[in-house]
Specification:
There is one protein chain. This protein has about 140 residues and is mainly beta. About 10% of the residues lie in helices and about 50% in strands. It is built from 2 helices and 10 strands, in the order H-E-E-E-E-H-E-E-E-E-E-E. The radius of gyration is 16 Å and the shape is globular.
Length: about 140
């Protein structure tokens, strides 16, 4: 796989965590929504969240109540930075991230590309309280004419 094979925008099909005992957990629920974009100049950005998030009572994005802001942030993830392909892995070098612990980190993802379907596997870690390997399945988006 080459970096150019990934260039484009992808939509999240499924985000799951496989636990060591074989259970599959959906950390953002069955309705998770996300986009992943790789650019030809070597940058990427990704975001994911549960699709069923409640809107704020008002229209000022910075003036929601503490409860509204916490609910909006719950299980939301976004990050960006340069990327590179090494063998069967894609490395995301996080320059900025909603989860501050990832800033400045290299996030390795085992990658499998089959046509317009990309599966990324993140190393075993704790996500939403569950220890396991994350599997993210992405479908390449095609612009309609």
């Amino acid at each position: 796989m080459k970096a150019s094979d990934l260039v484009g925008t992808w939509t999240l099909v499924r985000y799951e965590t496989a636990t060591p005992d074989g259970k599959v957990v959906l950390p953002m629920g069955a309705d998770a929504f996300g986009r992943l974009t790789y650019t030809s100049d070597g940058y990427m950005h990704a975001y994911m969240c549960p699709a069923s998030r409640s809107p704020f009572a008002g229209n000022d994005m910075y003036a929601g109540s503490e409860v509204e802001r916490l609910a909006a942030a719950d299980r939301f993830l976004a990050y960006c930075g340069p990327f590179e392909v090494q063998g069967d892995s894609v490395l995301h070098h996080a320059e900025s991230c909603f989860f501050p612990n990832w800033v400045g980190q290299t996030l390795p993802r085992k990658a499998e590309l089959q046509g317009d379907r990309l599966t990324l596997r993140a190393p075993t870690a704790k996500r939403n309280g569950v220890q396991g390997e994350a599997r993210l399945i992405w479908q390449r988006l095609k612009r309609s004419s």
